[in-house]
Amino acid sequence: MTLLKTMNLNVKFWAVVPAAGVGKRMNADRPKQYLMLSGKTVIEHTLSRLIEAQVFSAVSVAVSEEDPYWPELAIARHEAIITAPGGKERADSVLSGLKAIGHQADDDDWVLVHDAARPCLTAEDIRLMINTLQNDDVGGILALPSHDTLKQVNGNDIVNTQDRRQIWRALTPQMFRYGMLKSALTATAGNLAVTDEASALELMGFTPKIVEGRPDNIKITRPEDLALAQFYLKQQAQQKELS
Ligand code: CTP
Ligand code: MG
User: Fold this and answer.
1) CATH for 13-242?
2) Which of 22, 42, 172 has most ligand 1 atoms within 8 Å of CB, for mutation?
3) What are 214-233's pLDDT values in tens digits?
4) pLDDT per residue over 46-95, tens digit each?
5) Ligand 2 centroid to 144 CA: how many Å?
6) Domain definitions of the chain by residue range
């Protein structure tokens, strides 16, 4: 196992997990983070991956206050887990998750924000991101280059073809300093263009970095994604056995 090249031993790492969405596009009988995947719920996979990475001082999870599923899970009472109330938009949930660790986190500590709906995150990607970004002034995000040719459209008409080399898909985790992230999310609150943490920092004039992540770190969004996540989890378990 590659060790973290931690430069400043005083700086802590925190995880914040927005998990207060309803999963409209999944069209299931419950929010997608509570659907079963290879023997446990999606969110249990996600949180286990974060806890097992052994880098986080705590994992702050933002869940809806009317959520009947969360209190039923044993992991909700794990010593590393802090529960925060969810918000209207993803950014509100993240800000709430940040506030819940406010009495323990320092402004210079790093926060990795990770979607509850991404259960296939690997310890390898967590370490890659931390090792790459921990001496950066701003921080950054895991991302993937686009393999498809990208078209800008107007209805069904193609307007032009984008330069694929300049377009990356944003994943999570997204890693920023506690103080800077909280200020950026507070300043941009209510702005619907803020669909991830990086966009809040960008609006404040900062330049977050990209770190190329693994393609198996998918976000469960539509029904067919569950089978794909199941496949990736199985594949990861096999690779672990072989190594
Ligand atoms: N999320 C959240 N609070 C919200 C909205 C979303 O914490 N008000 C979380 C989701 O639970 C998810 C992550 O943000 O883990 C990414 O959002 P998304 O994939 O869009 O999930 P949902 O909003 O639940 O799905 P949909 O957009 O299809 O309704
Ligand atoms: Mg959503």
Assistant:
1) 3.90.550.10
2) 22
3) 999 999 999 999 999 999 99
4) 999 999 999 999 999 999 999 999 999 999 999 999 999 999 999 999 99
5) 20
6) 13-242
Residue 6 has pLDDT above 60, yes or no: no
Ligand 1 near 103 CB (within 6 A): no
User: What is the band of 2 on the pLDDT scale with cuts at 50, 70, 90?
Assistant: low
142 has which bridge partners? 211
Cβ of residue 208 lying under 6 Å from some atom of ligand 1: no
Ligand 1 touching residue 24 (CB < 6 A): yes
Q: Where are the alpha helices (DSSP H) in the chain?
A: 42-52, 90-99, 123-133, 178-187, 197-203, 224-242
Looking at residue 8, its pLDDT comes to: 66
